[in-house]
Amino acid sequence: MLDHHAWQAVWLTLELATLTTVLLLLVATPLAWWLSQTRSRWRAPISAVVTLPLVLPPTVLGFYLLVLMGPQGPLGQLTLALGWGTLSFTFTGLLIGSIIFSLPFAVQPIQHAFESIGARPLEAAATLRASPLDAFFSVALPLARPGLLTAAILSFAHTVGEFGVVLMIGGNIPGKTRVVSTQIYGHVEAMEYAQAHWLAGGMVAFSFVVLLCLSLLKRNGASVMR
Amino acid sequence: MADINQIRLKLPRAQFDVDVDLHLPGKGITVLFGASGSGKTSILRCVAGLERAVSGFVRIGDAVWQDDERGLFVPTWRRLLGYVFQEASLFEHLDVQRNLEYGLRRTATSADRNTLDEAVDLLGIRALLKRRPQALSGGERQRVAIARALVTEPRLLLLDEPLASLDLHRRREIMPWLERLRDQLAIPMLYVTHSMDELSRLADEVVVLDKGQAVAAGPISEVLAQGDLPALADEEAGTVIQGVVQECNSRWHLARVQLSAGCVLVRDIGLVPGNRVRLRILARDVSLTLDQPTRSSIQNHLPGVVDAVLADSHPAQALVRVRCSGDTLISRVTWKSVEELQIQPGLAMWAQVKSVAVIA
């Protein structure tokens, strides 16, 4: 069964995934809205940058984040000057890395949801005296709910499953930065296959449930609108 | 009053430039009539501020919405207007009641629950309030959309082909509600359509558009009586005449309607003596004779004087405009008849009317 360290890793993973999801929705929603509405020439490059974590090896992303957050990096120098120390090998650093790593998984479903709404409901809102900001909250967001749900589930699941970025910028500090995936890695390194099995099997079950929820969500798209 | 509502717009399009200067009366329906792609919807969207004309001046009552000489452009949500789109565009995440309240809650003026109740009764949608938009028929959705626009107490109601996405049955179902709006609302309405049926039933005034230009404007009966507008000279060419129901004959199921030129018999569709009705007489249903017809199956004949002989869409045919006292009829005849009967302006003739449609 799971020992004390394993449970610590599970809780840390859930904490990281929950915080990442919440913060990611706050960042990704306005970004997705901008991408779905703008005709700016910056749309294509920014869209590409947002999608980058999807194709980059996590180690590449982790490496650059490590450099950026390190004592010589610009972000590291800033946090040092503010008296916060460096972010690498901390939970906050892990959180920032997770947000960037899962950004495309949050932005894309929301962006597609906004795009499929089209201009007409927002025009109708404007003729009914709703300011653009009002129309965003009262019409665009509720209509994009299925997209927001998909984004939340994908971000959460993707964060739970990350390994490369965590290892690069978080290291493997028990109770601080050791999550389930690195814990499994540790067990395997130490030839503790029984413990690895419990955690790995749990991950498989978790991932299955997430994908099942997603497909049920898509099938009941109409009722999710309610 | 005619100058209170002025709409002057210029905007370039791919094929032509839209350039219009419209004056709307203080109430009643003004129809923007023209073929698809003549710029009707663009004009409506510019009036609403959903698109911006290159240069424009829009004043409704005492509110100026756009004046490019002063660099003024009021955003749509600050314009006191109602807009009915071709597809109802109800908010799918709200039920009918919440759709109606959406505008009400955002209206700064004195609009209250009474306004909502009035709109609900005017459009007959009380039974639908708890339903969701997905559960409504096309006609019901459009009635809810119109009510939703009215709840905000607009100074101007814009309707963009509100019946175009509906089948014939639904169109007939919703038409009486639109006639009610026309007769009961004290605001101007700008109504875009390319349907002759809607034009003749609903319009008080009409602006005929061709490639972005207004080629004719004025009261419906006058504009239709011109007879020389390509947009109006197809199979449906004809005129609209106002009359008063005199009496109904239950034996023949006919009603007698008094026009200024005389009386005509029409099918009794439940007409009420004393009521004003709108008659539509198509050019193809009017024939001309030099003598008063006495032994003819056609019941309706009116004396008149030829006003003009105009070219029709086919080279074999002519449209003859006949003034019968204050009313105008258009008759479709062949050029052969024109020559043989020597039809020319000033000639006194009898117009035989084979069919009269009561449209309102």
From TrEMBL, chain A:
* Compartments in which it is found: Cell inner membrane; Cell membrane
GO CC term, one of those recorded = plasma membrane
Q: Which InterPro entries is this protein grouped with?
A: MetI-like, MetI-like_sf, ModB_ABC
Do you know which SUPFAM superfamilies this protein is assigned to? MetI-like (SSF161098)
A UniProt-annotated Pfam family: BPD_transp_1
List membrane-spanning regions: 12-34, 46-67, 87-107, 148-169, 196-217
Show which residues constitute the signal peptide. Answer: none
All copies of the ABC transmembrane type-1 domain together span: 10-218
Ranges in a coiled coil? none
Source domain of life is Bacteria
**Membrane topology summary:** Multi-pass membrane protein
Keywords per UniProt: Cell inner membrane, Cell membrane, Membrane, Molybdenum, Transmembrane, Transmembrane helix, Transport
Known CDD domains for this protein?
TM_PBP2 (cd06261)
Keyword Ligase present in the record's keywords: the answer is no
Alphabetically, the GO molecular function entries are:
molybdate ion transmembrane transporter activity
Q: Which family does it belong to?
A: Belongs to the binding-protein-dependent transport system permease family. CysTW subfamily.
- Its biological purpose: Part of the binding-protein-dependent transport system for molybdenum; probably responsible for the translocation of the substrate across the membrane.
This protein is called Molybdenum transport system permease
Q: What's the source species for this entry? A: Thauera aminoaromatica S2
Automatic annotation (TrEMBL), chain B:
Gene Ontology molecular function: ABC-type transporter activity; ATP binding; ATP hydrolysis activity; molybdate ion transmembrane transporter activity
**InterPro entries for this protein:** AAA+_ATPase (IPR003593), ABC_transporter-like_ATP-bd (IPR003439), ABC_transporter-like_CS (IPR017871), Mo/tungstate-bd_C_term_dom (IPR008995), ModC_ABC_ATP-bd (IPR011868), Molybdenum_import_ModC (IPR050334), Mop_domain (IPR004606), P-loop_NTPase (IPR027417)
Q: Which UniProt keywords apply?
A: ATP-binding, Cell inner membrane, Cell membrane, Membrane, Molybdenum, Nucleotide-binding, Translocase, Transport
What is the protein name given in its UniProt record?
A: Molybdenum ABC transporter ATP-binding protein
Occurrences of domain Mop (ranges): 295-360
Q: Does the keyword RNA-binding apply?
A: no
Instruction: Tell me which SMART domains the record gives.
Output: AAA
Q: Give start and end of each ABC transporter domain.
A: 2-236
Among the entry's GO cellular component annotations, what is one? membrane
Entry keyword tRNA processing? no
Q: Which PROSITE patterns match?
A: ABC_TRANSPORTER_1, ABC_TRANSPORTER_2, MOP
Q: Which domain of life is it from?
A: Bacteria
Q: What is the lineage of its organism?
A: Bacteria, Pseudomonadati, Pseudomonadota, Betaproteobacteria, Rhodocyclales
- Gene3D superfamilies according to UniProt: 2.40.50.100, P-loop containing nucleotide triphosphate hydrolases (3.40.50.300)
Give the matching Pfam families: ABC_tran (PF00005), TOBE (PF03459)
